[in-house]
Amino acid sequence: MKRVTFVWGGEVMRKLFWAGGLIAVVALVAACKQGVDVKNGGRAKGKIYTVDNSGDAGQYVAMDIDGHDAVHMVYYDKKNQALKYVRQSPSGFAIDTVDDGCGKCLYCTIKVTGAGEPHVVYYRDANKTLTYAYRKEGAWKKEPIEWGDGTGMGARLLFDREWKLHVLYYSGDGHLKHAWRVLREEGAKPSLPPKPKKPKKGKEGEKVEVVEPTEGIWGKERVDQVNGSEKVQISFVLQPKSGLAASYFHWSGLNSEVRVAIQGEGGKWSTEVVATENNPGKSSALFFTPRSEPRIIFREARLDRLCIAEFTSEGWAVKPLLNGVYNMALASDASGKLLIAYEKMSGPDPRKGHLNVAIRKSGVWTNYEVDGLKGAGTHLDAVSTSSGASVIVYYEERGHSLKLFVGE
To answer: Comparing C-alpha atoms, which of 14, 2, 63 is closest to residue 331?
Structure first.
């Protein structure tokens, strides 16, 4: 009989949630036969579209969905060293270039307004800057967030309840940081970001970047002292009543931890360890149940396994969920339905895995195969439509292309 693992801790969550009356104390039985029971649903019903097969496009893909169920995507076009944006419409896919001079365009994240206006954050290798981009009057405008090698790993963007933009990311100085955007006061003269170095003389036709005044400025604060990773997947969400919350990864060189950060009164951050066994946390996702109970799904790298951590009166209780997992993307809705898109491992090489999705509905987990091609899903993201349909965008290694699955 396999027991649930309890992790000491939980003081942060008790203080911020139970004291506020948000969640009730849950008595979890600390024993189960095989962790979470997952049924086999066979092949997922739906349609697969090719979004971009122009060369090598689709790494670091991120996705969001607007109020009309239109899908918006942003990704790195490696062949052209550009950042691309795509909006799905009834007539097909409209592709636009956000940045054609970024070199490596890494750690992409996107959020859209209900009306479908895209907001993007990414790392621009050409000037070593975590950058915010948005559209205005038909053109992409950009603002620097933070400069530095390695800055931006795991970036996650969100809107708060007042439609203020926030981004969570690893900084090159060894910290997890929270940044937020503030519009400059009306009538105030906007200042210029640092001027780029002048190109060397004698290089005719060299492209010179035009420096424009920025409409917004970004405040920054440290959340925790941690080390990230290039392909780390963290989560950044709204708490049920107010404030922000995150699950993330700390890597010490030999071992790792899953941690949670909660923004309390006055904007102060509190952090604690959720799990430490089997090198956990390179992929994690925090969500809240309809009863406002916090849950974290995360990957154990040593076992290639997904687990779920539930916050209880005993602390964080960790149970196995899925085996043979390389990465993950989580989508949830107000009804409690969960969708986990992931690459199912076929041996140690992720380029030989394939795309699966696990769905929990009415408390029952069912696993489906989405794309059986080798290397489907090494980069991915997922959302649910207003009707509950699964939508998964992913990079397919064999064809070096970006694909989109839309479930029935």
So the answer is: 63
Q: How far is CA 131 from CA 86, 223, 314, 337, in A?
A: 18, 20, 42, 33
Q: What is the value of pTM for the model shown?
A: 0.89
Lookup result for tokens 């579209």 = 49
- Residues, the chain, total? 408
User: Rounded to whole angstroms, how far apart are CA atoms 165 and 150?
Assistant: 22
Q: Give percent of the chain above pLDDT 90.
A: 76
pLDDT of residue 190: 43
Nearest to 35 by CA among 12, 9, 5, 56: 5
Class of residue 133 by CB neighbours under 10 A (exposed 0-12, middle 13-18, buried 19+): buried
Torsion of CA 227, 277, 381, 268, to 10 degrees: -50
Q: Which two tokens stand for residue 114?
A: 């209900």
What the block records as the tokens of 126 is 């050409």
Per-residue pLDDT of 235-268, as tens digits, reads 999 999 999 999 999 999 899 999 999 999 899 9
Burial class for 184, CB neighbours closer than 10 Å (0-12, 13-18, 19+): middle
* Burial (Cβ within 10 Å: 0-12, 13-18, ≥19) of residue 191: exposed
Report the alpha-carbon distance of residue 107 to residue 59 in Å, rounded.
9
